[in-house]
UniProtKB/TrEMBL annotation, chains A, B:
A family per Pfam: Crystall
Subunit text: Homo/heterodimer, or complexes of higher-order. The structure of beta-crystallin oligomers seems to be stabilized through interactions between the N-terminal arms.
Record bears the keyword Repeat: yes
Species per Swiss-Prot/TrEMBL record: Cyprinus carpio (Common carp)
Protein's name in the database: Beta-crystallin A4
Amino acid sequence: ISNTCQFFSIIVYDEECFQGRHHEFTSECCNVMEFGFETVRSLRVESGAWVGYEHGNYQGHQFVLERGEYPQCDAFGGSNAYHIERMTSFRPISCANHRECRMTIYERENYLGRKGELSDDYPSLQAMGWCNNEVGSMRVQSGAFVCYQFPGYRGYQYIMECDRHCGEYKNFKEFGSHCQTPQIQSIRRIQQ
Amino acid sequence: ISNTCQFFSIIVYDEECFQGRHHEFTSECCNVMEFGFETVRSLRVESGAWVGYEHGNYQGHQFVLERGEYPQCDAFGGSNAYHIERMTSFRPISCANHRECRMTIYERENYLGRKGELSDDYPSLQAMGWCNNEVGSMRVQSGAFVCYQFPGYRGYQYIMECDRHCGEYKNFKEFGSHCQTPQIQSIRRIQQ
């Protein structure tokens, strides 16, 4: 049980269960339609951690993709709190390579209020002593994390990286292009 | 950031967003209809980790419930790989108290084939060196784990406890009453 990742590789298919047209990507893709895909219905992550986006140009709902098999949209689109039927763009999470993941969460926006230092996986922030179902702002010092709306890694996902936005997310509108609420109840590290 | 759990408490509501009739439970409930609920549309876990079931008598799809707020069915029903519209029974996961979680996974049923020793959270078993999208059988030596069909804690959930079935799950039909496939691609510990 060791980290075997040396590079990034994802294979996408336009039919479910790894059927139909397919293409392997080893770096970011800002619009899969440019490669002749109408949509992606299944995918296999061969190496590395990736983030997928509903729309082109890394817009819309986002979701983490780790090594393994996703035989239909339901398998990668996240929680049934929202229904993503498509993945149009995706990119590697390059800073997820860090052995050390560290972030600070703040009760209020602009890094104000009570704060918590995170360096592990937290399926329930409240069980870990965070007395709130929201996070107002956050800073990622190293590595990459995925934040979820509900406990147990469910609901909307927001990928937070130390090398994007300088790791600074000063209010919930910076959490993601679709983010309409500061509700965050579970957070975990992303590793390759 | 410490373990604050001393007992078990869950409050269920028959309307979304913590509205309507409600009831607090501090131990297992084999059928919420016996308490006058037609269904549960939102819930709040105040303390402890619980497992919820689609049907009465702890049957059907299962899903872990950790401390926090679940304002609608979508928030607790798991992944959109399946659509659970109800939670009819639920019980505390008492052995999730263990500080040490240990389990062994086996490639084939009846504890045969290659094996892996787990004591951490694994969002992708394949990234950790498990060269398969399936697990044939497993033994939980201590604590409790939740196994998921897809990477990143998505899809069907199976709660595995050291003090149920003697911690022994010798083939996929013992993973859960609804289990139709040995496909498991992520596993994590359950803690209070």
